[in-house]
Amino acid sequence: MIPDLEPYWKKLVSTGLRFLQDQGNTAAVAVIKNAILSVDFNNHDNWDGGIDYWDLAFHLKYRDFTAIAGEKDKIEGEILTVLEQFHTDGRDRLANVIIQPMIEQYIDWNAILPATKESTIALIREEQKMLSDVATGKISFKEDGIEDAYQERHLQILTIADKAGFDYPVTANTLVEWWGEVRLLSSYAERREYISQKFSPLLKMLRESEDNGTDVSFQQIATRSGTVQKAVEDAEVFIREGRYDSAVDRVHTAFHGYLRQVLTDHRVTYGAEDGLPALFAKLHWYYGDSIQPADVAERLKTILRSAGGMINAVNELRNNNTIAHPNGQLIQKREAQLVIRLVNAVVDYIEDVENGIA
Asked: Which pLDDT score, from 0 to 100, does residue 78 have?
């Protein structure tokens, strides 16, 4: 594309985003926020002195794309309509808005459990440092234990790479082989650059890959209120970034706002200071009479009362073990994932009841 046009299109999309937010169009907002934008030349028309037509393509990660795939055409049309309202340049016109999936290497992090994305990256960084130290003379591969440590870690990385589905660029199975590979490079600077070229693309790909250990989506409740929508958006960003303590705080906020709105919709009264446990108790008693048959209803009520205990624990975790308050001991990733999944399961059930799904 013509370079000086790019800032204009980005500003146009930013203006459109603001308008869509004001409209409460959460699906279109999510597409714009989560996508990487590209501007592609479509065609040139010689009429009236010449007109260029451009396509705006929003490239989404796999999970984001599949979440809206059924509404893709509708969302494309909504974004295009909004952008056309603000676009006034008669010489460079919008042809299409296109939502496309990114073509990426899929990393199956679940396949390497109990190892994780973070522990894998740490292992690879350790190996990168050792290879760099050998290449630049900081350590010798002849030192006691160095070769054994390398071979053990290298085999572990190769096993993880095979299970997770990515290619590992280091083919030297021993440090002797590695030294034979790098000693032909005449300077330490060349060797460091050689190592960087091997590791940087891989580490970037692994860092940006989706951590599929927490498969949750709260987008279905985002439309309940503006507060819920903002909390959901924040939580999903924190989940993607691996900031699970922050995600628990925002999930708590979203769930709290969600319960208040559902109760309001059903004209069930609650106190202004009611927390999660009190709100959930009111809601599950309201739903109780709708569960059939009767013997199933009694058992389900027991489950829902037990869920109330879980909700209370979530409330305490948020208040005492997240960044919501100045707490010293923050909840860790594994436990935070459990909390997020449990809340998501409760939300799914409530939505099924609300939508009349038997």
From this structure: 96
DSSP 176-229: HHHHHHHTTS-SHHHHHHHHHHHHHHHHHHHHHS--TT-----GGGGGG-HHHH
Tell me which amino acid residue 208 is: E
What integer pLDDT is reported at residue 214 of this predicted model? 46
Mean local confidence (pLDDT), 197-224: 74
End-to-end CA distance of the chain: 52
Distance, in Å, from the CA atom of 111 to the CA atom of 119, rounded to the nearest integer, reads 14
Q: Read off the tokens for 210.
A: 């989706």
Which CATH number does 219-354 carry?
A: 1.20.120
pLDDT over 90, % of the chain: 40
| CATH topology for the 3-101 domain | GMP Synthetase; Chain A, domain 3 (3.30.300)
- Beta carbons within 10 angstroms of residue 85's beta carbon: 11
Question: Which of these, 99, 168, 181, 86, lies nearest to 135 by C-alpha position?
Answer: 181
Distance, in Å, from the CA atom of 259 to the CA atom of 347, rounded to the nearest integer, reads 9
Report d(CA 98, CA 17) in Å as an integer. 16
Quickly list DSSP for 10-77.
HHHHHHHHHHHHHHT-HHHHHHHHHSEEEEEEEEEE-GGG-EEEEEEEEEE-HHHHHHHGGGHHHHHH
